[in-house]
Design brief:
486 residues; alpha+beta; Heat Shock Protein 90; 3 domains; 64% helix; disordered C terminus
């Protein structure tokens, strides 16, 4: 819990910072100079007005000279408001120094000249100039010239236009000297202490910044190590293709052979078990293939083989496979292919792989109703992209899941995953393949009413750099376990 002095200091800091315009506050050195300027002008007049106050009581016949001195010192309170209203810090600093010089020379002119009790205040002029203007040599030179011109003018006026006779008693002048010296000492001490406080806070800030920089360096090093580990992992998995697929293909092959033998014998129990093994092997092989393909893309080892493809025939053949599955479920599949689709240079295997997952999901998650496939050229001339829209009337996707739909291992709901066998890799792989080819996938959905996926693919191969620019989210992360309909 903050103590009373700490609370007072915090309140003073907030009051000082309120006067600093945002443009000045954005620069560290100028902000510190502004704080010194403001603490001087907010607190200084309290100490400075001690001098005209003492003169008022000590001078037997105080006149206009005391009033002018008091008004000039009180005028320092206007500077913080002028700074907040107009900025122009350097100009205000020079005007303030000029006002201080005037106050000192004015009191010296009427009360003793070079032996004036108010002369100790002269020491505050170079101190304030240093505080206000910092280390800028040009501004310091201007301040020195200002100081010199004022004192030369004072000497000339004092020489050729002597002040009126001073009737203040010697004892009063001695008392004024004590009061003036104490006030000047207090003022200089206040400024020095506040400056030391600013330096201490600056040192603490620099120490904290060094700590943050060290932390940032460690984070960069850890990130680099994580990236190296991720690339090593991806490269390892990509190179494991043969070692993983070979035993799985053997299991699938032997189970197929045993199924054929079991079909020749009246052994329904064995056939059912072998059928489960066969389907489990195929599912596992499909999952391994998806993981390996994702790893290859992440490691930059996925190679595309482009060939001339008649887009209409290609999509028609692809849809016919899923149309048979849809009919088996009682789902109607509508295919609408534009006449001007023409040809495209695609890696047919990878395009089929990307579209297969979306079409499979559309059929899988639609119990009744329809799945429609529409393909067209992108509007405009020349048309460099093919747009493929796949829309279903299935269960739909919850709105909160749409932003994470294409993230790896994302599954819409545990119940859905258990019912339909989702692994959360299919749509991630479809998006990764589309982006690798310079395309993209957009999805919209209404829960309970169906989903719509729009696949955009270029008609000609794109370089890796152009593909990254063409895709709004070219950076892929395959290690984020979240939860969409995939």
């Amino acid at each position: 819990m903050a103590t009373a002095p700490q609370q007072a200091t915090s309140l003073l800091d907030r009051a000082i910072d309120w006067f600093i315009p945002p443009k000045l506050a954005a620069q560290r050195e100028t902000r510190q100079q502004s704080r010194m300027f403001l603490i001087s002008h907010l607190c200084g007049p309290f100490l400075g007005n001690v001098v005209p106050g003492a003169l008022f009581f000590l001078d037997p016949s105080p006149g206009y000279q005391v009033a002018v001195l008091g008004v000039s010192i009180t005028a320092f309170w206007a500077f913080p408001f002028l700074l907040r209203a107009f900025g122009h810090y350097n100009l205000l600093a020079f005007i303030s120094v000029q006002n201080l010089i005037f106050c000192i020379l004015w009191s010296c002119y009427f009360y003793g000249g070079v032996s004036s009790p108010t002369l100790p205040w002269v020491l505050s002029i170079p101190l304030l100039t240093f505080f206000y203007l910092g280390s800028n040599p040009r501004l310091r030179l201007w301040a020195l010239a200002q100081f010199t011109i004022n004192f030369l003018a004072f000497a000339a006026i004092y020489r050729f236009l002597p002040p009126p006779h001073e009737d203040t008693p010697l004892e009063a002048l001695q008392g004024l000297g004590i009061v003036s010296t104490l006030a000047a000492s207090g003022y200089v001490s206040m400024m020095a202490l506040y400056y030391a406080r600013i330096l201490a806070s600056g040192a603490e800030l620099e120490e904290e910044m060094r700590g943050h920089l060290a932390t940032a360096t460690e984070l960069r090093r850890a990130t680099a190590e994580a990236e190296r580990a991720g690339l090593a992992k991806a490269e390892f998995v990509a190179n494991m293709s043969h070692e993983l697929r070979t035993p799985l293909n053997a299991v699938i092959g032997y189970s197929q052979m045993l199924l054929e033998e079991a079909a020749d014998e009246p052994d329904d129990g064995s056939a059912e078990d072998l059928n489960k093994i066969h389907h489990a092997g195929q599912h596992l092989l499909s999952l391994v293939n998806e993981v390996l393909d994702l790893a290859k893309i992440e490691a930059g080892k996925m190679e595309l083989t482009h060939e001339e493809v008649a887009v209409g025939d290609f999509l028609g053949n692809l849809c016919s496979v899923h149309a048979a599955k849809a009919r088996a479920k009682g789902v109607k599949m509508k295919i609408n292919l534009a006449a001007n689709l023409g040809t495209a240079k695609w890696d047919g295997q990878r395009v089929s792989q990307a579209l297969d997952q979306i079409l499979s999901n559309a059929v899988k998650f639609t119990s009744e109703g329809s799945v429609s496939v529409t393909a067209s050229r992108e509007p405009g001339r020349p048309s460099h992209r093919i747009l493929i829209q796949i829309q279903d009337t299935g269960i739909g996707i919850a709105p909160e899941m749409l932003p994470r739909l294409f993230e790896t291992f994302t599954v819409a709901h545990d119940a859905t995953a258990s019912k339909y066998g989702d692994t959360g890799l299919g749509l991630s792989l479809s998006m990764a393949l589309c982006r690798l080819m310079g395309g993209n996938i957009e999805a919209t959905s209404t829960l309970g009413s169906g989903s719509c996926f729009i696949v955009s693919l270029p008609v000609a191969p794109m370089s890796a750099r152009r593909a990254r620019k063409a895709s709004p989210k070219a950076d892929m992360d395959f290690d984020v376990p979240l939860s969409s309909a995939a």
